[in-house]
Amino acid sequence: MGFYEQILQFVLTGLTIGAIYALVALGFNIIHNATGIVNFVQCEFVTLGGMMMYTYYSLLGIPLILSFFLSMTTIILLGALIERGPIRVARSKAIIVLVFITIGLSSTIRGTALLAWGPDNVPLPSFSGENVIRILGAAILPQHLWIFGITIGVVIFLQYFFHRTLIGKAMRATAVNRKAASLMGISVNRMVLLSFAMSGGIGAVGGMIIAPITTTSYDTGIMLALKGFSAAILGGYGNNAGAIAGGLILGVLESLGAGLISSKFKNAFAFLILLLVLFFKPTGLLGYGESERV
Amino acid sequence: MRNRFKFMAPFTQKKETLFLIIFALGIVLIPLFVKNKYYFMVMNIVGLNTIVVIGLNLLIGFTGQISLGHAAFYGMGAYLSAIFTTTYGFPPWPTIALAMIITGMVAYFVGYPSLKLKGHYLVMATLGFSIIVHIFMVELDQITGGPSGFPGIPHLSIGKLVFHDDLKNFYLIWTFAFLCILVSLNLVNSRVGRALKAIHGSEVAANTLGIDTDKYKAKVFVLSAIFASLAGSLYAHYITFISPRSFDFYYSIQVVTMVIVGGMGSVWGAFFGAGLLTVLSEILHVTEKFNIIIYGAILTLVLVFLPEGMVVGFYSFYRRRKVKTLIEKEGN
User: Fold this and answer.
1) Binning pLDDT at 50, 70 and 90, where does residue B288 land?
2) Inter-axis angle of helices A266-280 and A220-235, nearest 10
3) Chain B residues within 8 A of A265 when measuring between CB atoms
4) What angle do CA B37, B39, B44 make, to 5 degrees?
5) Of all helices (H) and strands (E), which one includes residue B158?
6) What pairs with residue B157 in β-bridges?
7) Is residue B245 pLDDT above 80, yes or no?
8) Residue closest to A200 by CA, chosen among A55, A46, A62, A67
9) Distance in Å, alpha carbon of A103 to nearest chain B alpha carbon
């Protein structure tokens, strides 16, 4: 394989994993916009997406498409349950307390997943075969195409939802100003509930479509979600177009870094980029900049 | 009114002095009654955790920011001490100071940019940083010993006194824990502490009064990292063997939980939280698998129902009852 084919190969694999980062980043954004908190359970949404898919499809033998939607629904319900339960019941609504609660929940769920499925990685078969497809000298799997397709589908759905439906617009209004939104008759609590459910669903999709390539285990979500968060910061926290751009850029940079510099430190690249962005351009690529209002 | 600040420890200065004396007496007297080696080991771990938690507690309680990177600072202290003294033959005591300085500088570069921003960027920046540090500990195996760890770290010594057993290390570690408590109590009651309380009350108001809020927040963060580094160095010289497993993500979760259980912003609460949860961990050691569930569940439950932490939560409950009975008496 020549040098350019190699570069193309790295870029393509980078874009695939970047698509997952983008999905996770979108999940972070949706909850951040609705509540202002960093939701650590996002890690577990991603993990459980893959693990539920494994349970439904490989263990229970439910057909692929049905398993996909079943696991997505399960995680959507889990997201809603988390909002209805601890987040709603919490006696203090200080942001720091809510962030801590999500950290605690994330640990609890991860520990439970460890007990339920054990510490080993489990494989998940590709959605449609393993025949390598060649594009300009680079090799990709059908699963990569699934990842691109489903990610684009999710993005189109979100775009439609947030800009063309009443509920979507209500959610955006809540993100801009909670008080004003509730004065307009929008039930802010319901919007927050919806944001947890949606970000659960999106995280689960990310976890499910990447699992056939990387396999999945009780703690795969941590790394993916943290990189997704880095992507959200890189794109500008809270900005959905930024999340997608940030995810893809991060994925490609990481893949190139691992391929051309050192694969040992592959996982360090994303966080190095996160620290550099926070240092030099904390508003991210497409962020509006958070000026302090008094 | 000293208790105006929600997260402030509900103790007066007089009581603080009393507590300090009791604490110091406790350190001196406990070895007279306890003879079991295992208990000393547990108490030493409590002491090390106390040092980390006191620093972290200053950060969480006063700046309202979360760090999930204290495992990395703890690990940096341990590894810097281990590498410099064992591989390069540096004298241990100055190396501890050197490790504290290096860790503090690194913490400044990690923390300052994210503390300048509104919102919770620090939690992810520190988490990202701690993952990088962990990767370095595992991958730079020629320097750090990699995943199998770093053996043969010398014990600390003063003159001919070598801190080689659990009892001697008990005195050493708890002396440092005592000093850290003293430093943070002084800090709370000083000009810096008042500035921090003002920041906690209202950052904007503090800013208009000429308090450089970003600078103070960064300073507290650096101080908390330095405490963690000190604890890490002491740990390395006490156990004489370190491995990356001791400094992973779960350690950060553990110390954060200790802060929360003790109560954000309460120095004595930090000590209580470290003690309670370390002992709990030891009791539950048979089922290590359950550890993350239990820490997660404790963290969640305490925050949902007692967001001020157990010490402060129960104390204010007790105070309210006392006031209530007083009112009832006056009514009669």
Assistant:
1) low
2) 30
3) 135, 139
4) 95
5) strand B157-158
6) B162
7) yes
8) A46
9) 7
pLDDT at B3: 38
**One-letter amino acid for residue A19 of the chain:** A
Share of chain B above pLDDT 70, in %: 92
Both tokens of A123, joined, read: 């494989």
CB contact under 8 A, B307 and A267: no
DSSP B193-232: HHHHHHHHH-HHHHHHTT--HHHHHHHHHHHHHHHHHHHH
Which residue ranges of chain A lie beneath pLDDT 50? 291-294
ipTM of the complex: 0.83
Question: How many Å separate Cα B77 from the centre of its chain?
Answer: 13
Determine the residue type at A156: I
CATH number at residue B139: 1.10.3470
With a threshold of 0.95, does the pTM exceed it? no
Residue B332: what pLDDT?
A: 55
pLDDT at A293: 42
Instruction: Name the domain count of chain B.
Output: 1
Measured between beta carbons, which residues in chain B are less than 8 angstroms from residue A222? 249
Say how far apart CA B131 and CA B139 lie, in whole Å.
12
Q: Report the distance separating Cα A195 and Cα B99, nearest Å.
A: 44
**What tokens appear for B81 in the block?**
């001490």
Q: Stretch B200-211: mean pLDDT, rounded?
A: 81
User: Hey, what are A232's tokens?
Assistant: 């959200």
Domain A3-280 class?
A: mainly alpha
Output the six-digit token pair for B211.
Answer: 């308090």
Locate the chain B residue with the closest alpha carbon to A86. Answer: B304
Does B147 reach chain A within 8 Å, measured CB to CB? Answer: no
Q: How far is C-alpha A73 from the chain's CA centre?
A: 16
> Are the C-beta atoms of B220 and B30 separated by less than 8 Å?
no
Determine the residue of chain A that is closest to B122 in CA distance.
A278
> Can you tell me the distance from the alpha carbon of B259 to that of B262, in angstroms, rounded to the nearest whole number?
5
Q: What's the full length of chain A, in residues?
A: 294
Residue B304 domain boundaries: 2-331
Contact B156, B93 (CB under 8 A): yes
Question: How far, in Å, are A88, A128, A169, B237 from residue A182 at the CA level?
Answer: 17, 46, 13, 58
Per-position DSSP letters for B66-77, written without gaps between them: --S-HHHHHHHH
CB A125 within 8 A of CB A207: no
Q: Does A150 touch chain B (CB under 8 A)?
A: no
Residues 6+ apart with CB under 8 A from B55: B70, B180, B184, B223, B224, B225, B226, B227, B228
Distance CA A51, CA A204 (A): 9
A287, A239 contact by CB (below 8 A) = yes
Q: Given an 8 Å threshold on Cβ–Cβ distance, is B292 in contact with A36? A: no
Torsion angle of C-alpha atoms B64, A197, B304, B177, degrees rounded to 10: -40
* Contact state of B128 with A230 under an 8 Å Cβ cutoff: yes
Residue pLDDT, tens place only, A22-39 = 999 999 999 988 888 889
Q: Where in chain A are the domains?
A: 3-280
**Average of pLDDT values for B146-172?**
89
Place of tokens 């550890």: B291
